Every structure is written in structure tokens, then in C-alpha cells.
């Protein structure tokens, strides 16, 4: 599709709608599980933007240890969607129970098919309702960290990953003799029953995604967003993506997209629904840090970030365009050399780097020119860049931007930054700043600093485990809150943050929930 011929028209519509009142709208939302990034944070952003958002009882949603209740979710959805303007729903929840359940369930394909058919029934019950659904291509992790795969992955996971990587390479470009020997050696080490179990679950997921692509072609769903969850350039996930891509030839970008990501998709689809319901098409210009910039291929992903950013903008209902007339500027903090290390590494210090200083000054110039800014901080994986955030702090820019994100994978960060940035001008300043404060406390203070310090200085000395806090949870909550308050006082003292509360929703150190009162 040649988008560029539509740009003048889209620009006119977008700027006209900026001064048009936003009508009230009701959106029914089903997240992929009960984690804050999928549930509370999405609801907070939508409500701050003036949307009436309806969510199912938490007891129906998947948790870390429970797969959720798909039958209960379907019954609830049929009952609550009759007067909705739009439904935004996770197919992982509706088909399997949650994102984690999609990797571990033992459902028959007949049950999956019955649940898929409910989407067509839901649409026929309310033809004017728009259905925005999002799902995932099952991930192929290199390691067993997190305990979210079948139990045998603990022992055989690395071998399974390597088998699929070699098979993907063989399918696309062939293997050397040594690689072929390696593949056969690995196949001898993994019991056939285990491989059959793992591949059979993936086959069900692949067939379900094929059906959902068909629903997009038939206009049963208004938009289907498919995520490549924790993918690598060669992997089973990448091979399945290639096979699915062949089935989407001719399907327009206004109906379907597939790119790296998962946990940001609820926020993205909520924003798309809001934009579409108000006939708004935000124009977004991207500003990169010096260095490799858009050609960075982040860890956990298989494509260059410039391509991923454009895909996220389009998926949220906007248009990427390098124009000074863009209503939103996305500032992207990429590593100078294109290598995204972990946020808890020794490289993530607060000493200024030339690239971070240049990007911070570019952002200050954009703000002086009256441009709205949202920030995607992806120089490190799983947390913010301390040097970059220190630059923003000392220049007084933290609460002058419209939105910020710096958590987990690059795509997670990019999706949140774009979506919240698009919604921010619908919010009163206090609501916008509250969402910013939550992200600063979570992505910067906790993920890049406090998490590792509490783990090393408190959790491990007391004999605790990273993935299961057990009886140490109260002690860790108290210590984490204390350190987060000290961090906030040091880096953004002008914003009062004494009343926030911390919890560990999945009883592990990986994620934290920040409750910040209005």
C-alpha cells in the first residue's frame, strides 16, 4: 500500500480533529493476564484519556500460577459488549487462559476452534462494534528463566531452542555439514515425546493464528495484531512468522500487523481503538540518539528498531512521517554501537555519554519549539539508561515530556511510549504527570537500580530466590519502597511521591506494581 499519497489528506484530518471535542466512548478490554503492564497501567491510561473502560473480574484472568478462565471470560464478554463501541481483547486469554497458559496448556484443537468461533458470534451479536484482537506467536526462549514453560524446558530448553534455530536456518538458507551434524546430535539428546508435546502445542497456536488472519480478511475483526514474543533471527518463532506472512499477502496494514512484542499490545490496541473511534490519525516523527540509531537490532528481537517503531506507530493508528508538522515527536535513546546490554550490567552507570547529552539537548530544543515529546529509552534491555535519565533530570525535562517508557524489551518500551504519547494530550497535566511518575519509579528507579540492589543486598543474603520471594515478600516490599522514595527524592524532588505503595504481583523480583494515588 502506498501510504504517502494519503499523507496530505491524513494531515488535514489529524489537525482538524485536534480541535474537535472527543466524544465519550466505552471500550471493553480483556488483557492477556493480570500483570500491571497488561491490566492496571492500561486502564489508568485509558481513564486518564477520558475513556469509559470496562474490564472483567480479576478472578477470570490468568496469573503466574493459574491459567485463567476462558469460558468465564467469554460469558462475561458476551454480557458486557452489547453496548460497547469497541472490544480490545487478548486471544491468548480467550483461547488458552493467559499468555503463560498458551505455552503450557493441554487443550484439544476442538476446544480452541470452539472458542475461536465465538469471535464471529460476538461480532454478529453487535455488528456495529469494532473488534481489536491481539495474540502471539509462541516464544522460543533460549533459557528457562521465569519458569513459564513446560517443566521439561528446565532441562531441555537450550537444546530445543538450538534445534529450532537450525531447522529455521535449514528451511530458509540451508545448513553446513557441521550444522547438520549438530542438529542430528541434538535430536538424539531430546526425547521424541518431549519434542512432540512442544511442537503439538505450537501447531495449535499456529492454526489459531491462521484462523484469526482469516477473520481479519472477512472483516469479523477490525484489526488483528500478532506479536513475535521473545524471538531470535533463527528460531521456531521466526519460522512460523515466515509461514504466516505468506498467508497475509494482500491484507492491508489497516487490518493486520505482526512484529516483535507482546506485553505492550494491550496498550497499543486500546490506543488504536480510541484513535479510530474519534477518527484521529496522529502523525509521529522520530528522533534518534547519535550512533547506529534505527539500525539497532535489540536483544530478544529479530528486526531493526527503525522498522519496529514504524510498525508500532501504524498499529496504534498513527502515521510515521519525518515532518516538522508532526503532532508528536518520539525521542528514541538507542545505544551508540547498536548493542543493547541488560540494565543491571556495569555499563549502565550515571556518567554522561556524548550520545545521551546530544539527545537530551535535541529534546530540549524540540520542547522550546513547542513540540510534544514522548520518550522510548531502549539503550538497555529490562530497564532505563541511567546516564540518559540523569541528563533529563539535571536539565529539568522529566515532567516536560508527555510520556516515557524504558521497561523490558525494546518493543515493550516502544509500544508504551507511542501509545501513551498519543493519548497524553487528552489528559489534564496532573494525570499525565502521574503516569510519568509511575514509569520513572518502575522503569528507571526499580528496574535499572533498586531491583538488583535489593536482590544482592537483601534477598540473596536471606536465602531468597529471584523467581519466588516466599515469606520474604513483606521485608522486600518495605525495603523496595524505602529505596524508591530515596531515589525519587534525589532525581525528581519537585514531584511529591510519599504516598505510593509497592507490591510484587507475581511474587518475584522481575516486575513490581506501583500504586500512586490520584
List the helices and strands and how they pair.
Layout: H1 7-18, E1 26-30, H2 40-48, E2 52-54, H3 70-80, E3 86-90, H4 91-95, H5 101-104, H6 109-125, E4 130-137, H7 153-172, H8 177-189, H9 192-217, E5 223-228, H10 236-245, E6 256-260, H11 265-277, E7 283-288, H12 305-315, E8 319-320, E9 328-333, E10 341-342, H13 354-368, E11 373-377, E12 380-381, H14 386-394, E13 403-405, H15 410-423, H16 429-459, H17 473-491, E14 501-503, E15 513-515
Parallel strand pairs: 1-2, 1-3, 3-4, 4-5, 5-6, 7-8, 7-9, 9-11, 10-12, 11-13
Antiparallel strand pairs: 14-15
- Average pLDDT confidence is 92
Question: Cα distance, first to last residue?
Answer: 44 Å
How large is the count of helical segments? 17
CATH topology of the largest domain: Rossmann fold
Total domain units: 2
Uncertain parts: 1-23
Gross morphology is globular
Per CATH, the class of the largest domain reads Alpha Beta
Please identify, by name, the CATH architecture of the largest domain.
3-Layer(aba) Sandwich
Largest sheet: 6 strands, parallel
Strand content: 5-15%
Given the helix and strand composition, which structural class is it?
alpha/beta
What is the C-alpha radius of gyration, as a whole number of Å? 22 Å
Strand numbers in spatial order across the main sheet: 2-1-3-4-5-6
Helix content: 40-55%
Number of strands: 15
Amino acid at each position: 500500500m502506498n501510504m504517502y499519497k494519503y499523507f496530505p489528506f491524513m494531515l488535514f484530518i489529524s489537525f482538524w480533529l485536534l480541535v474537535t471535542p472527543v466524544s465519550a466512548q466505552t471500550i471493553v478490554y480483556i488483557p492477556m493476564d493480570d500483570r500491571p503492564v497488561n491490566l492496571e497501567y492500561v486502564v489508568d491510561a485509558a481513564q486518564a484519556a477520558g475513556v469509559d473502560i470496562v474490564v472483567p473480574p480479576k478472578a477470570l484472568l490468568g496469573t503466574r500460577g493459574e491459567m485463567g478462565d476462558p469460558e468465564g471470560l467469554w460469558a462475561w464478554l458476551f454480557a458486557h459488549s452489547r453496548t460497547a463501541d469497541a472490544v480490545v481483547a487478548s486471544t491468548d486469554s480467550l483461547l488458552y487462559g493467559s499468555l503463560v497458559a498458551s505455552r503450557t496448556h493441554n487443550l484439544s484443537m476442538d476446544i480452541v476452534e470452539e472458542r475461536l468461533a465465538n469471535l464471529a458470534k460476538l461480532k454478529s451479536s453487535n455488528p456495529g462494534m469494532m473488534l481489536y484482537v491481539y495474540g502471539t506467536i509462541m516464544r522460543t526462549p533460549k533459557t528457562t528463566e521465569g519458569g513459564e514453560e513446560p517443566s521439561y524446558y528446565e532441562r531441555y530448553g537450550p537444546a530445543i531452542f538450538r534445534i529450532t534455530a537450525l531447522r529455521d536456518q535449514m528451511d530458509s538458507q540451508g545448513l553446513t555439514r557441521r550444522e547438520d551434524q549438530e542438529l542430528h546430535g541434538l535430536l538424539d539428546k531430546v526425547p521424541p515425546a518431549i519434542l512432540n508435546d512442544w511442537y503439538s502445542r505450537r501447531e495449535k497456536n499456529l492454526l489459531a493464528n491462521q484462523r484469526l488472519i482469516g477473520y481479519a480478511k472477512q472483516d469479523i475483526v477490525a484489526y488483528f495484531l500478532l506479536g513475535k514474543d521473545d524471538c531470535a533471527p533463527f528460531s521456531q518463532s521466526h519460522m512460523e512468522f515466515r509461514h504466516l506472512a505468506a498467508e497475509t499477502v494482500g491484507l492491508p496494514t489497516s487490518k493486520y500487523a505482526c512484529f516483535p512484542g507482546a506485553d505492550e499490545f494491550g496498550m497499543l490496541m486500546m490506543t488504536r481503538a480510541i484513535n479510530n473511534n474519534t477518527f484521529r490519525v496522529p502523525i509521529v516523527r522520530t528522533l534518534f540518539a547519535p550512533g547506529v540509531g534505527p539500525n539497532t537490532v535489540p536483544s530478544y528481537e529479530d528486526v531493526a528498531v527503525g522498522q519496529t517503531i514504524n510498525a508500532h506507530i501504524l498499529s496504534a493508528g498513527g502515521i510515521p512521517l519525518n515532518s516538522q508538522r508532526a503532532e508528536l515527536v518520539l525521542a528514541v535513546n538507542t545505544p551508540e554501537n547498536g548493542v543493547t546490554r541488560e540494565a543491571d550490567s556495569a555499563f549502565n552507570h550515571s556518567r554522561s555519554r556524548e550520545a545521551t547529552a546530544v539527545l537530551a539537548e535535541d529534546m530540549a530544543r524540540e520542547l522550546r519549539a513547542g513540540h510534544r515529546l514522548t520518550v522510548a529509552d531502549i539503550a538497555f534491555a529490562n530497564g532505563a539508561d541511567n546516564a540518559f535519565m540523569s541528563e533529563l533530570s539535571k536539565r529539568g525535562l522529566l515532567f516536560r515530556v508527555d510520556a516515557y517508557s524504558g521497561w523490558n524489551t525494546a518493543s515493550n518500551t516502544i509500544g508504551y511510549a507511542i501509545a501513551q504519547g498519543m493519548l497524553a494530550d487528552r489528559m489534564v497535566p496532573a494525570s499525565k504527570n502521574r503516569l510519568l511518575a509511575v514509569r520513572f519509579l518502575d522503569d528507571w528507579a526499580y528496574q535499572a537500580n533498586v531491583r538488583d540492589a535489593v536482590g544482592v543486598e537483601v534477598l540473596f543474603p536471606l536465602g531468597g530466590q529471584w523467581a519466588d520471594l516466599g515469606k520474604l515478600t513483606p521485608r522486600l516490599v518495605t525495603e523496595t519502597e524505602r529505596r524508591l522514595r530515596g531515589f525519587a527524592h534525589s532525581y525528581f524532588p519537585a514531584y511529591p511521591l510519599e504516598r505510593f505503595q509497592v507490591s510484587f504481583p507475581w511474587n518475584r523480583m522481575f516486575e513490581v506494581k506501583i500504586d500512586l494515588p490520584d
